[in-house]
Amino acid sequence: MKPLKSALFIAGVFLVLGLSFFFMPEEGLSFFSYRLRNPLPAEKYSAWLASLSREKIFSPPAERTPPVAEDTLSPSVSLTTEKKTVVEPLTFSDSLLRAVPSLEMSDTTRLLFYRVLHEMDSLRHRREHLHILYYGDSQIEGDRITSVLRDTLQAHFGGGGPGFLLPVMTVPFTASFVTEPSAGWQKINNYDIRGGRYRGIPFGLAGGFSLAADSLSAGQKKELSCRIAVHSFAPPRALDFNRLEVWLYAPQKGPSLQVKQGGNVVAGPRSLPAGELVCERIPLQGKGRRLRLGFDTQAPFAVEGIVLEDSVGVSVDNIPLRGRPFMMFSRCDAKAVRTMYDSLNVRMVVLQFGLNVAVGSMRDVRYYRRTVQRELHWLRSNFPDLFVLVVGVTDMGGDEPHLQEHLLLIREEQRQTALKEGCAFWDAYRAMGGAHAMTRWAAQSPSLARPDQAHMSREGSQLFAGMLLKALMEDYRTYSYGL
Which helix (H) or strand (E) holds 473? Predict the structure, then answer.
């Protein structure tokens, strides 16, 4: 063996022998009648063990509790170190996002939600689409809340486009698009109409439709149009759509339809049948964000819905119903709703109502209980595999007598009825901060509430959407861990 290798071998032996003393018991080892003593001094051995016990690898790192400013909804906490006290204040929005309440639902309802999450997870693989319908009163107008939900979910699960709309919108200029119908259109709602139909035209999933050429006399012809433009400043994925769907119903004679995208004809003109609910699916070219739907007709007809979407992914559809206490499903045509739900693959429905009842009388609040129970029962009976989420009433400001009392009663009626009917419930009143929260929202800069302190501002709607997303993603993480 060469001298260098010999020296390395001897050094290695002594190194191993020396290290073995550290792991030898302090009292040494016994071999039959011979005892091998530990040459390390006892005090050094004990000190070495004590130093190991203080290392981080043997104890989990202390959790750092983030401090909260005194003017937020959470209590103030200070970080104390050996040298100084560090205070890191949270913003008003951050404090709300830290305390978002979870979704409330039974185990059976949670399984329905997990099915929705499973389908969303596999949309890209299966090359399919899925729709979430978000119904609400004026609080959701303008696509302010739903545009944030849509863009975030599409970023994770795929999809694009602004989703569902009508030629005559409650608010034609939204956060994602603008509609411009020509003369000759009118909006028909089912709020005061029973039987599921109006002049033979069924009420579909929107609880209303856009009626065209209602004043047209026999033998006359009329040209109508509807222009749709997706804003260049809309959420990024609102511009990524490759398919147009047009839902129509003509009681007597069907119109002809022509579709232009950016001035180029992409479909038609083609004649549509009468006496049935028709869905025209038209592939679109490129990313042109301006469309024109042109109709030639000899008789009145209705557009039940227009959908701009990517053929693969998820869509969140904004369906605002100003002044409504709730969506009147029971006054829709069940067959028409089922046809549209099945075609669009509607797997989840969100319902956000209540403000219009809170400013009424106590009689309105008591009647509201029957309304919510009737409509949720209709929806769950007709679509037992549908996941339904009831978003509780939000807080509102103002000096209306008994306002807070009404809000709490409505919130409790919504919660109890939702859970009883197999739906999920999310406590928006608590998420906002409880009683008089809207006053605090209005005091922020920029203000999170509009001057009426009943509706959220654009910034407030984005915060609200973020809180709801956090509650939804909490269950998504639980679902993901179980895979």
Answer: helix 458-481
